[in-house]
Amino acid sequence: MTNTLNDRLTRDLSGRATNILRALGAELPPPGELPARTPITGGLLTTLPATMPADADAAIGRAAEAFRGWRTVPAPVRAAVVRRLAELLTAHKTELGELVTLEAGKIGPEAVGEVQEMIDVCEFAIGLSRQLYGRTMPSERPGHRLMETWHPLGVVGVISAFNFPVAVWAWNTAIALVCGDTVVWKPSETTPLTALACHSLLRRAAVDVGADPEVHQLIQGGAEVGARLVDDERVALLSATGSVRMGRTVAPKVAARFGRCLLELGGNNGAIVTPTADLELASRAIVFAAAGTAGQRCTTLRRLIAHADIVGPLLRQLENAYGQLPVGNPLHEGMLVGPLINESAYTAMRSALDRALSDGGELVCGGERVDVHGDNAFYVRPAIVRMPTQTGVVRDETFAPILYVLTYRDFDHAIALHNGVPQGLSSAIFTADQREAERFLAADGSDCGIANVNIGTSGAEIGGAFGGEKHTGGGRESGSDSWKAYMRRATNTVNYSPDLPLAQGIKFT
């Protein structure tokens, strides 16, 4: 009976996904070998054709050809495509958010919030189109002007992950388009429907404003499809989001052909809680950062470093909060924790918990599987594990809701624990001591790309450049001056005098 109900629910979810795609104007391709599953039940929504290697090469070729014309369009005019995309996203925010829930398992507010993030970065990119500033510098030679100009780079390849199936694509694509680049997108093979929807909306936006829709290409499939972007010299910049293992493979290959890489890889994020911290505020931030999206964010809080004097009351608050977290179908109102993406994610979580306990860890709460929609769906209760030391399993990133708790007494030790992992994406400190806060943000404090005070590790705004250091890859996307990654810089000298003086006063007669 349970299997029958789950099958019926999967069929209902499949129908909802189909109706959403039609509402968004997406052309539904014929069935193929690429499965589109929902983590809500683990069932199959539909299948899509996978892109063949030759078709991927052709898509790159179309993007390269479109770039020849797109690069000469004035940047504020290019922004019209992004402006129209923002309008379409606003009109279809609810539908696209539901599709994100169906494919990635995010709860409704987080899924709709991801679409809002797309709209926000579009607005950022529209303004940026009038601010791609160069510089004019003083020349040492009379009658000369020395300046820098920025020009479109070329084809940008975007490889994105399942956990932010639409926002990360928008970060790259909105900025790349206003910079004059064209885009070829290889989404996660676990979220092909959201990719199809976004591709359709962007192509529609281009047509609506009279731009060439070939500025954006979509290729679907596994690693072998992404490899075409990695190896093709026509791809000037490869922006890839995924695991450190993936980055180790991608970066040397792109470097070997003298291409550019923008990598957003692993994040093993930590937060320090000091004796002066507001524990009520800290506990709320910790729960959201550690349990939100079922621990499947690159900015998820995975390590909590608490002072020995306050770790007891802090853990009691966290355990109480964890015990009240509703775990279940993310389409249902009031749910805060949805499913893991698939069985592999659950297996990795169980393995990490077993390793932690064998290393002397103590399970405070959580970690058990919750039966929501049968054997093919993987719902878990977020876990808290108190660890005696920062062992190997703590230094590794497990993409699941496990929060390891360590203690300290000396603040320098807390910083050392925090920085003592290979990854360097996001970080936080909870304190009312200004000296501790300033030290955490200083050069000898957090070694991460994102460092926060009295706020959690997740929930970055698009106005700030997003990215990290060390094994996280060092790339920056979204806000600030991240646009420079999508353009090439030229130094220009203009001689408006009748003479030809040489630099450094050199005489050549």
Automatic annotation (TrEMBL):
<dbReference type="InterPro" id="IPR016162">
    <property type="entry name" value="Ald_DH_N"/>
</dbReference>
<keyword id="KW-0520">NAD</keyword>
<dbReference type="InterPro" id="IPR044638">
    <property type="entry name" value="ALDH7A1-like"/>
</dbReference>
<protein>
    <submittedName>
        <fullName>Delta-1-piperideine-6-carboxylate dehydrogenase</fullName>
    </submittedName>
</protein>
<dbReference type="InterPro" id="IPR015590">
    <property type="entry name" value="Aldehyde_DH_dom"/>
</dbReference>
<dbReference type="GO" id="GO:0004029">
    <property type="term" value="F:aldehyde dehydrogenase (NAD+) activity"/>
</dbReference>
<dbReference type="Pfam" id="PF00171">
    <property type="entry name" value="Aldedh"/>
</dbReference>
<dbReference type="InterPro" id="IPR016161">
    <property type="entry name" value="Ald_DH/histidinol_DH"/>
</dbReference>
<keyword id="KW-0560">Oxidoreductase</keyword>
<feature type="domain" description="Aldehyde dehydrogenase">
    <location>
        <begin position="34"/>
        <end position="489"/>
    </location>
</feature>
<dbReference type="InterPro" id="IPR016163">
    <property type="entry name" value="Ald_DH_C"/>
</dbReference>
